[in-house]
Amino acid sequence: MRQRLGRPLRRAAVGLRTRSWAPHSRLFLAYDVEGWVLEYEARQLERTARALGVTPGPARWVKGVDRQSIFHLSQFTLLLHDFERRDNRLGLAYFHGRPGTPGMPEFDACFETLRRRHAEIDRVQVTSGAMEELILETGIAAEKLHRIPIGIDTEAFRPRTPETRAAARHALGLPDSAFVVGSFQKDGVGWGDGLEPKLIKGPDVLLEVAERLHERLPELVFLLTGPSRGYVRTGLERLGVPYRHALLPSVDAVAQAYEAIDVCLVTSRDEGGPRAVLEAMATAVPLVTTRVGQALDLVQHGENGWLVDVEDVDGLVAWTAHVAGASASDLDGIVAAGRATAAANAYEALRPRWRELFRGFVAMPELRG
Q1: Summary mean pLDDT of the chain
Q2: Contact, 38 vs 59, CB < 8 A?
Q3: What is the pTM of this model?
Q4: How far, in Å, CA of 139 to CA of 82, rounded?
Q5: For position 2, what pLDDT does the model report?
Q6: Which domains are seen in the chain, by residue range?
Q7: How far apart (Å, rounded) are the C-alpha atoms in residues 269 and 198?
């Protein structure tokens, strides 16, 4: 009872405190605490905000804030329930979620809520041109919409070398001579074993590709990372395809995993990113991906990676096998162009886009000169 009474009192105190500040003088970042990826993005966005002269407020105050600016790192933290605008300005990241997607009713709920209440939303970040077109269908004003891709920390994700590759393989127990395919998508439902496939991420497609590659590449090994990979693990075991599964505790560990692989494979049916696009490019790893999310905007087929249609198993197999048969010198141009794409989309390089989103949303110093 004391806890239930204390929470409204704390919110009221936060409201009184923030109303005493200049209107919209602080930026508050809201995100689902279960997702460490969103926590990481929140830290990067806070760093960007500070670099632009924006003052962040304490994240724990978000639910009690009045007359300030709140940015939600995911539409799901705002649009899946009724929300109070109070006198706050509200912004959100709307990365993915097409209405009508089978088995994903939350996508319909988010889209319908935004359609009904778009006048109460001040800013929306999308990561791709495809999502920009979709969100405009809600009736939201075009000037509220800002296309900013999920960026990359090029200090954490550095080009691999023969030495770092060997060290990464040793750390992950991968044979030095194997052709290692990296899969970094969480593709099971929930946060447990993930035995139920999250089909939007294409785990069934991944298994079809693995079966076909196993017939062509005698030393094939898959590296799976992240939670909820049970469906793919069970499938690989059934097919007799060797794999390693690593639960990586930090961004540095994720970066090291990229250094260990020969190709990064994305088989998703829909994505907001995926983050793997720029992570692979930054670490000089060849990328084969379906035409999803920001991959559509960032990947130039045959120049900095390879793009195939969603569910195109033949294309995914062919281009992955192409990488397996290519020499390092054959791939030099591809990975160099990928590194340039990553540099152009580093968090620091994206600051001008965030400046435009923040302008008129939260207090920030005016540019001079």
Answers
A1: 94
A2: no
A3: 0.93
A4: 19
A5: 43
A6: 2-151+348-358 (3.40.50), 162-344 (3.40.50.2000)
A7: 10
